[in-house]
Amino acid sequence: MMNSSLLPPLIHLLDKDTEARTAVAALARRLGLRFRAWSGYAALRHDFDPADVGTLLVDAQLADAMPPEVLAADGVDLPVIVLARHATVDMCRRAFKAGAVEFLDKPLAADRLPDAVQQAIGRHVLLRARQHADGQARQRFARLSEREREVLDMVVAGLTNKEIARALAVSPRTVEVHRARLATKLETGSLAQLVRQYASLVEEDAPFAPACGSAWGAPLPPAGSLRAS
Q1: φ, ψ dihedrals at 56, nearest 5°
Q2: Residue pLDDT tens, the chain, 229 long
Q3: CA-to-CA distance for 169 and 229, rounded, in angstroms?
Q4: Cα–Cα dist 12/98, whole Å
Q5: C or N terminus of the chain, fewer CB within 10 Å?
Q6: C-beta separation of 121 from 58 below 8 A
Q7: Where are the alpha helices (DSSP H) in the chain?
Q8: Residue 172: CB atoms within 10 Å
Q9: In the Cβ-directed half-sphere of 50, how many Cα atoms lie within 13 Å?
Q10: Which residues have CB under 8 Å from 132's CB, separation 6+?
Q11: Does a cis peptide bond (omega within 30 degrees of 0) precede residue 219?
Q12: What residues does 11 pair with on adjacent strands?
């Protein structure tokens, strides 16, 4: 069985409108995309492959039964394009409030449909790329020792090497060594990259700062009393 990640993006259509099905199927062929029409959300949810990249086009009358929390609970992270015949401002407002990325009138306009589909797929590709990067970051973060997490916590908080050394009762040189190890283990080339990629994981992790915060205002201990860790 072929890996879904190697296949072209897939346009899912949840709409009983024959005209809409014909138009979207023709677009998929023209753009070299896969296409699948569904009779109802239960069928889509049952056969949905979370590895697929694509978008979901759904009739407005069916979209109300698929709020974001339902999609999220079922692992369906597709950008949603809502389709409506005799659209109203209220229908459009509800669609965007529910998280739709686009709202199109039926019959589907040939000039708007391709752009809407390609932009939605682009959003999904970026989302999956961020998810992959986040997963890789979590794996690297999990490799850190407890002391390295303490140092990372303080680096993200904006403390200098001297302030971290004071808080941990170690030498500034020891802090430099820990920071070098962090850069290697976390595969970051700058402080900005480290903060951008790992600040949220530090927040999720049990904070170390309160445990040693009382030491921050204390003077550095005598050189002979510093311990490497």
Answers
A1: -120, 120
A2: 455 567 999 999 999 999 999 999 999 999 999 999 998 999 999 999 989 999 999 999 888 888 888 898 899 999 999 999 988 999 999 999 989 999 999 998 888 999 999 999 999 999 998 888 888 888 999 989 899 999 999 999 899 999 999 999 999 999 999 999 999 999 888 888 888 888 888 888 755 444 444 444 444 444 444 444 4
A3: 10
A4: 18
A5: N
A6: no
A7: 18-31, 41-47, 60-63, 68-73, 89-97, 113-142, 146-156, 161-168, 172-186, 191-204, 209-212
A8: 16
A9: 8
A10: none
A11: no
A12: 35, 55
User: How big is the chain, counted in residues?
Assistant: 229
For the chain, domains (ranges, CATH) are 4-138 (3.40.50.2300), 143-225 (1.10.10.10)
Token pair for 6: 């190697």
Helix (H, G, I), strand (E, B) or coil at 196: helix
Q: Is the dihedral of CA 175, 180, 182, 185 positive or negative?
A: negative
Q: Which two tokens stand for residue 141?
A: 């973060």
Amino acid at 121: I
Quote the tokens at residue 179.
């920071």
